[in-house]
Amino acid sequence: MKRALIGLLALGMGLSLAQQAPLKIGVVVSATGPAASLGIPERNTLVILEEQVNRRGGVAGRPVQFIIIDDASDTTQAVRATRKLIQEDGVLAIIGTTTTPASLGMIDPAAEAGIPVISLAANLEIVAPVDEKRRWIFKTPQTEQQMSTPIVQDMKANGVKTAAYIGFNDAYGEGWAKAFEAAAKEAGITVVASERFARTDTSVTGQILRILSRNPDAVLIGGSGTAPVLPQRTLKERGYKGLIYQTHGVANPDFLRVGGDNVIGTRLPAGPILVFDQLPSSFPNKNVAQSYVQQYEAKYGIGSYSTFGGHAYDAWAILRPALERALKKEQTSNLAAFRKVLRDEIEATKGVVGTHGIFTMSPTDHLGLKFQEAAVMVEVVKGESGKLEWKLVRTFR
Amino acid sequence: MDWTIAAFLAADAVQNGTIYALLALALVLVFAVTRVILVPIGELLVFAPLTYVFFLPSGISGLPLQGVIPGTAWLSAGMLAVWAALDRAAPRRAGVLLGGALAVLGLAWWGAHGVPLWLGWILAVLIVFPIGPASYRLFFEPAKNASVLTYLIIAVGLHFAYQGLGLVFFGPEQYRLPAILPGQTPIGSVPINNQAFLVYGFALFCMLGLYGFFTRSLYGKALRACAVNRLGARLLGISPAQAGYVSFGIATLIACVAGMLLAPLIQPAYFQGFLLGLKGFVAGILGGLISYPLAVIGAIVVGGLEAWASFQASAFKDAIVFALLLPILFWRSLRSPEVEEEE
């Protein structure tokens, strides 16, 4: 009896000891500011994951603590948060942040301190080329290049010979212009017009007239959020009959709400999670996406999920096994050495099935996605209830 | 570019130009009477339709906003309450202002619990309207007789504050509003949105109304006197402060109604007001911020230039429009007298 008690006591002490030394992971997301509609589901996802992993006994028997900081969609604040997480909190790795400019800003402080970062932003430049600084940076969302390929393939399948592009006059639109024009050229599609508009614009008639005067078979609109509704509406009002493509930046319910009937028939490439329930059962990440969406909706309500939270889920899906492997090789008390080992282990990620695809990293590829699993073609249709819905058109496997 | 395209672009230029003209009129009015460049006018323009979204049934707005009181109502009521506190020396006026604050909240509550569309439309304008005159009382009136530069600094500060509040109140995304007159009417070969005719009608009404107000009514003449010579007007018993409220009030009303009429055409969001206001400002500058007819012509020029630039070189559109300021400012700086009447 006494022995059992002592045993229990020791166990309790062991447990409490374990609780005293959680594995600290820094998180920077844009929970407020213009990118909040992306950052909030990311934060929510990580809150769920922290609770879940600790309920199941943590990582290698140690609890995990996410230290979540909001950067308000601002680069300066993201950089400051990064420095704070590294120096004051002594985190093992950082997940974040939501936007491309802020993620680019985080590269320098992360590389200086030698800490692995998994970004949740789209632009390829965050992880490529993998140089002395970007050795430390990884990311989970698909790049414009990876999303251009399915668009061009879909255009070819629909017999498109000429296409026009109209996109934001900022980093997002320029990135897409570059990626799309390169992919189209390779596929033998002529890009007959390349126009720009601003998020704040209240009229795009001039640009649309120029596009219409060149009579393209398809138009790609490179914008994110709800602003890309305007060019699409203008195209419809001016009687354009060809195919209209959007980018995955519009894959959120707000786009359907603002777009209304004007966006019916829009085709866009999206992460498979957007239409998880319509994927063929052979699709490799169907189950992961489904279970993630169920967990998310159980906590935040039916219909509350978006594809962006999936990027945060994928970041943890990569980080967690890497942490486990690193814990076998190095003590967390030796912070600098541990971060280095952890970086190597993230780079050694192979075949991790996430909500958006299958991640296999290498020293030259810090994203590790192939578009075949990471993108599907989706069309906006009017459902039976009269509500707009995303419908899976085709996969690329 | 052929004739069809030119006709389409012209129609677009007129639609945009009309809005810039309305904003330019409001800016010229406020500047002439108070020497304030009302930078936050664009925010006032988008506040009204965004408030209206809260009063729409969720079937139309697509949002579960039933029963939510829009943040603009709290802002408006709060500003009226502070105004009442500042004017507590005059109990009757303070009482009226406090009553106004409560009325704004009451209207917002009523609107949020479901009203007919037309009534919600009016409620939205009524709720946002007090923000204009209250801004004058709270931020410009205490800085009486300050320089134009000080007023400009305050105005820019207000613009950032209202834009930030707009983000908090309405979120980062755009909204869709129902048109009062749906559909299109072809004029020649160019289909024009019917809603745009309302905008034209309102612009015409504003121009004629302001003309009549300034030439026929005693109040308008008093405002003009203030604009020409503040000190002289005061000597004749005209209160510059009151002139300030009236000019801010008219400008806010123009902005609010213009915003409500424009909203179905543009899908308003919190960030859209500033650029509209800035282009209205450029139009006003063409007339030296003094002349109403020149401001209207300036607005059409800005709209036309913008339409042309968006067709020819869309990536540089805004750069071209704002580059227009440089030769104009140069020309005006050569022409304008060295010392202004006051200060």
Automatic annotation (TrEMBL), chain A:
<dbReference type="InterPro" id="IPR028082">
    <property type="entry name" value="Peripla_BP_I"/>
</dbReference>
<feature type="domain" description="Leucine-binding protein">
    <location>
        <begin position="22"/>
        <end position="366"/>
    </location>
</feature>
<keyword id="KW-0675">Receptor</keyword>
<feature type="signal peptide">
    <location>
        <begin position="1"/>
        <end position="18"/>
    </location>
</feature>
<dbReference type="InterPro" id="IPR051010">
    <property type="entry name" value="BCAA_transport"/>
</dbReference>
<protein>
    <submittedName>
        <fullName>Extracellular ligand-binding receptor</fullName>
    </submittedName>
</protein>
<keyword id="KW-0732">Signal</keyword>
<comment type="similarity">
    <text>Belongs to the leucine-binding protein family.</text>
</comment>
<dbReference type="InterPro" id="IPR028081">
    <property type="entry name" value="Leu-bd"/>
</dbReference>
<dbReference type="Pfam" id="PF13458">
    <property type="entry name" value="Peripla_BP_6"/>
</dbReference>
UniProtKB/TrEMBL annotation, chain B:
<dbReference type="GO" id="GO:0006865">
    <property type="term" value="P:amino acid transport"/>
</dbReference>
<feature type="transmembrane region" description="Helical">
    <location>
        <begin position="148"/>
        <end position="172"/>
    </location>
</feature>
<keyword id="KW-0812">Transmembrane</keyword>
<keyword id="KW-1133">Transmembrane helix</keyword>
<keyword id="KW-0029">Amino-acid transport</keyword>
<keyword id="KW-0472">Membrane</keyword>
<keyword id="KW-0813">Transport</keyword>
<feature type="transmembrane region" description="Helical">
    <location>
        <begin position="243"/>
        <end position="266"/>
    </location>
</feature>
<keyword id="KW-1003">Cell membrane</keyword>
<dbReference type="InterPro" id="IPR052157">
    <property type="entry name" value="BCAA_transport_permease"/>
</dbReference>
<dbReference type="Pfam" id="PF02653">
    <property type="entry name" value="BPD_transp_2"/>
</dbReference>
<dbReference type="GO" id="GO:0005886">
    <property type="term" value="C:plasma membrane"/>
</dbReference>
<feature type="transmembrane region" description="Helical">
    <location>
        <begin position="18"/>
        <end position="37"/>
    </location>
</feature>
<feature type="transmembrane region" description="Helical">
    <location>
        <begin position="118"/>
        <end position="136"/>
    </location>
</feature>
<dbReference type="GO" id="GO:0022857">
    <property type="term" value="F:transmembrane transporter activity"/>
</dbReference>
<feature type="transmembrane region" description="Helical">
    <location>
        <begin position="68"/>
        <end position="86"/>
    </location>
</feature>
<protein>
    <submittedName>
        <fullName>Inner-membrane translocator</fullName>
    </submittedName>
</protein>
<dbReference type="InterPro" id="IPR001851">
    <property type="entry name" value="ABC_transp_permease"/>
</dbReference>
<feature type="transmembrane region" description="Helical">
    <location>
        <begin position="93"/>
        <end position="112"/>
    </location>
</feature>
<feature type="transmembrane region" description="Helical">
    <location>
        <begin position="192"/>
        <end position="214"/>
    </location>
</feature>
<comment type="similarity">
    <text>Belongs to the binding-protein-dependent transport system permease family. LivHM subfamily.</text>
</comment>
<feature type="transmembrane region" description="Helical">
    <location>
        <begin position="278"/>
        <end position="303"/>
    </location>
</feature>
